[in-house]
């Protein structure tokens, strides 16, 4: 089959790789309908990935149709439309049973393992050889009952590709900071996850939603989801205007840099709640402890367990109350995968999410 493989920094190649085979009685094979590139794949593209060995298939976003299931798969049959969860777990361990597939301790099929990303990172899609990535025509899904979610027929594959990772990550943030009707919500960074954070805030009944990004095309898109927008330099003034200087009840940062995280805490009102779901390259930042203490802030940071969040997102999408597909700005073929990476990298041509057809 065809796939995109990592050959070295900024070297993504359209390649022939072996067809996947069932990983066991609990596995399934999915014929991909659309696959996607996540912002976090850019770290791999730059050679900053957790695994820099060339030759592995990249990506963790795919949706499609089941073509084969093992004898121990109970919930799926060939022909079923599915979302493949970007976070994989065994479905049986302490964490998986509580909905934290991202913290699965199994190590074979499972997420990041005990102790976070130290040491067990092989067992997640597209970060090495253990679980090959999903920018490919077919996918072997281990633990299929735990790692696939049935896609209701009302939901398009284009909406579904946004729900493999971007929408659940935003939903995780919005849920943890408990947006309640009328809350003022600020969102920092309007890539796909920021767009979905605006969508989540709107769905949860936020009052004012104020969102910041440098790029005008991203601000325009967020306005469609219900936000008023500003740049990072003007967002505080806009927020002050909307809240008589009190600040935001809830701030969601999707950028992850020290300056964005610090600004998130500055924008929060006294007693405010801040969620961080961006990738922080350094893995640490200078926490403004005194400000957080004086304001009495809550701070949440985490990675999404997709299956958990989809329980709430899918019914909203099926009912047409949320529109994740609005961020699909481009469509291309897998054979143009390398160009798709550089398009996203350059933030060119108004790109948010590219729906990649694995068959062209
Ligand atoms: Zn991702
Ligand atoms: Zn597990």
Small-molecule binders here are: zinc ion
Strand order of the largest sheet: 10-9-8-11-12-13
What characteristic shape results from the CA principal axes? Answer: globular
Mean pLDDT across every amino acid position: 92
- The class by helix and strand makeup works out as alpha/beta
- Our count of helices gives 12
| Structural Rg | 20 Å
Describe this structure as you would to a colleague.
It is a single chain. This protein is an alpha/beta fold and 360 residues long. The strands form four sheets. The protein has a six-stranded parallel beta sheet, sandwiched between helices. A five-stranded antiparallel beta sheet has the order 6-3-4-5-7. Helix 5 packs across helix 6 and helix 5 packs across helix 11. The longest helix is centred in the last third of the chain and has 13 residues. The radius of gyration is 20 Å and the shape is globular. The structure holds zinc ion (2 copies). The site of one zinc ion has 10 residues, from helix 2.
Question: What does this entry show, briefly?
Answer:
By secondary structure, the chain is an alpha/beta fold. It contains twelve helices and 15 strands.
Task: Give the helices and strands, then pairings.
Blueprint (H helix, E strand, L loop, with lengths): L1 E7 L2 E6 L11 E9 L4 H5 L15 E9 L11 E4 L9 H4 L40 E4 L2 H4 E3 L6 H6 L3 H11 L8 E4 L3 H12 L5 E4 L3 H9 L3 E3 L4 H9 L4 E6 L4 H10 E9 L12 H7 L2 E4 L4 H13 L9 E6 L3 H10 L6 E5 L3
Helix pairs in contact: 5-6, 5-11
One zinc ion (ZN) binds next to helix 2.
